[in-house]
């Protein structure tokens, strides 16, 4: 019995030991389900993260500061790209994911940030220009000034002469949507159109017309053709003015052309002077002619009236003479003497019955007439 109990106790002790080992094995069985290497790697990563966020690492604070700063910059940039301002002389064309969305007027506007919406400012109320053959300092538009000004100005006229032509095209953007989307480079295309049209217009005229008298016609025709091509290509551009600047012949023949130009100016000067004299003399002659015609008409009416008056008086006298001839004759005689006698200086009345007359010489009157003649003939 004692031996049995001992065995039983020893087996119980063994059993208890086995039970303890079994519990230990069960407790460690859940944690040992992963491979030892993977478990150690996960544990190391967790420890490193704990050290970073707890400030255990010497660079942990810098990383946090950089992350916060990046978030702040991203927020500021996002807020900055949500609004935009359109100037008073422009409109904005808004695109969403590259597709046309709308057109907005001047003022403050908002859009989706981070490149979702894109607003392009287009100066529709500002007059733009392109220069050919010369450059204005301070130009900001790359297509305003020529890339090769010498090549652009060299043209051939209709009579196969050469001319150097400089000009300016002033235009406005009439349709911002067409200006941005219908033509890839509308400003560059306009330069090509302007140069092509100007060469065509200059090539239809002689060199004398191009340099001297044909400037206005060239500007008008070039403007019409440029506008027609701009409309045909749907460029969204309205041409306001085409202005010729300097038109000169090539340097080797410039002196001869200057002489021709001076002769042309002298010709125009003489023509203008002749027209001025014509406009001055002709009206005077016309006025004098009208005055003489009026004087002649007045004299004609006067003579007619006098003749009619004399005829009427003669008819009246004739009627009276028919009634009393002797009395009428004497009356006419007396009236005639009344008209004639006052103009006679001296009167000599001779009796009809006197037979001999002694001549009377008036010496005082003759000496007076002689003195008057001498005085009048004296210078």
TrEMBL record:
Under the heading SUPFAM superfamilies, the entry gives:
Band 7/SPFH domain
Give the Pfam families listed for this entry. Band_7
The record, for InterPro entries, names: Band7/mec-2_domain, Band_7, Band_7/SPFH_dom_sf, HflK
**Keyword Membrane on entry:** yes
Keywords of the record: Coiled coil, Membrane, Transmembrane, Transmembrane helix
Its biological purpose: HflC and HflK could encode or regulate a protease.
Name the protein family: Belongs to the band 7/mec-2 family. HflK subfamily.
What is the official name of this protein in its record?
A: Protein HflK
Species of the source: Thiorhodovibrio frisius
């Amino acid at each position: 019995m004692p031996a049995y109990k001992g065995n039983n106790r020893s087996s119980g002790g063994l059993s208890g030991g086995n039970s303890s080992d079994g519990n230990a094995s069960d407790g460690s069985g859940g944690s040992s389900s992963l491979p030892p290497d993977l478990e150690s790697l996960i544990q190391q990563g967790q420890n490193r993260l704990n050290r970073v966020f707890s400030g255990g690492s010497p660079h942990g604070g810098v990383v946090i500061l950089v992350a916060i700063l990046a978030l702040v910059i991203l927020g500021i940039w996002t807020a900055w790209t949500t609004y935009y301002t359109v100037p008073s002389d422009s409109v904005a064309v808004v695109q969403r994911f590259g597709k046309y969305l709308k057109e907005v007027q001047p003022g403050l506007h908002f859009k989706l940030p981070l490149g979702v919406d894109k607003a392009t400012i287009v100066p529709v109320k500002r007059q733009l220009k392109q220069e050919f053959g010369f450059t204005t300092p301070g130009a900001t538009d790359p297509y305003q000034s020529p890339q090769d000004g010498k090549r652009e100005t060299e043209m051939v006229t209709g009579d196969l002469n050469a001319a150097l032509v400089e000009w300016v095209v002033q235009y406005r953007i009439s349709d911002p949507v067409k200006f941005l989307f219908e033509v890839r480079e509308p400003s560059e295309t306009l330069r090509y159109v302007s140069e092509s049209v100007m060469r065509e217009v200059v090539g239809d005229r002689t060199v004398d017309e191009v340099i001297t008298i044909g400037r206005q016609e060239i500007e008008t025709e070039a403007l019409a053709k440029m506008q027609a091509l701009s409309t045909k290509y749907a460029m969204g551009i309205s041409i306001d003015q085409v202005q010729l600047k300097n038109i000169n012949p090539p340097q080797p023949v410039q002196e001869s052309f200057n002489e021709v130009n001076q002769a042309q100016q002298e010709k125009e000067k003489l023509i203008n002077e002749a027209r001025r004299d014509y406009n001055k003399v002709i009206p005077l002659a016309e006025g004098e002619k009208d005055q003489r015609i009026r004087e002649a008409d007045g004299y004609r009416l006067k003579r007619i009236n006098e003749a009619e008056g004399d005829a009427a008086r003669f008819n009246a006298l004739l009627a009276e003479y028919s009634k009393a001839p002797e009395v009428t004759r004497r009356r006419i005689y007396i009236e005639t003497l009344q008209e004639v006698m006052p103009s006679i200086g001296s009167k000599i009345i001779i009796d009809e019955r006197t037979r001999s007359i002694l001549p009377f010489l008036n010496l005082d009157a003759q000496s007076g007439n002689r003195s008057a003649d001498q005085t009048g003939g004296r210078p």
